[in-house]
Amino acid sequence: MGIAYDAPIGLANLFVINAALTQTRRKSILTTIIIIFFDVTLAFACFFGIGAIMKKFAWLQLIILLVGSLIVIYMGINLLRSQTTDISAGDSELTLLKTITSAFVVIWFNPQAIIDGSMMLGAFQVTLPQSSYPLFIAGVGIASILWFIILDLVVSKFKDKFNAKVLRIINLVCGVIIILYGGKLLFNFITLLIK
Predict the structure, then answer these.
(1) Measuring CA to CA, how many Å separate 78 from each of 2, 84, 171, 178?
(2) What transmembrane ranges does the database entry give (predicted)?
């Protein structure tokens, strides 16, 4: 279940892939650890009830959808506008604070991750006996750790195969996907607002 929660290509995966391609090995691993931390904390929150809170307060869901969609669109536009440099040079401009802030936004301000995680993990919570909660959520956390570390290692291993032109194409494709994803979230917000 943990792999099913993390494996679909989403913002967190794109964040880890981009870090593995553009940052030094040390920064890439640090970025992956930060993503894992926020991903696991979101999984815990989803499992133990953030979805129930959002269902109870429709206005909260609307706020999360609106703010999240605008942030996601903004991130996609920034990715489209970013200039690609030589991959081997690493990314010296990304500070630890900016990495933490971006990772937090990618995970916790992503309404689709909150909604999907709440539905997927919250649904499992209902079907499990309470005594198995710790084992289940620990398994989800371990799967998250393994998934993101393996993703980072594989992309880092083969990043020499990418030149600046290929990386620019990857950034453009990812940027467009992220903008479309944000647009879908914004459309969901408008649909809910109209109802």
Answers:
(1) 30, 12, 10, 10
(2) 29-51, 57-75, 96-115, 135-155, 167-194
| pTM assigned to the model | 0.73
Nearest to 15 by CA among 25, 24, 23: 23
pLDDT tens string 137-160: 899 899 999 999 999 999 888 888
**Cα distance between residue 183 and residue 181, in whole Å:** 5
> What per-residue string of b and e applies to 136-166 under the rule 16 or more CB within 10 Å gives b?
bbeebbebbbebbeebbeebbeebeebeeee
CA distance 182 to 188: 10
pLDDT one-digit tens code per residue, 66-124: 887 787 788 778 778 876 544 444 444 568 898 898 889 888 887 777 777 777 777 67
The secondary structure of residue 143, as a DSSP letter, is: H
Question: Would you say the C-alpha torsion 78, 80, 81, 83 has a positive or negative sign?
Answer: positive
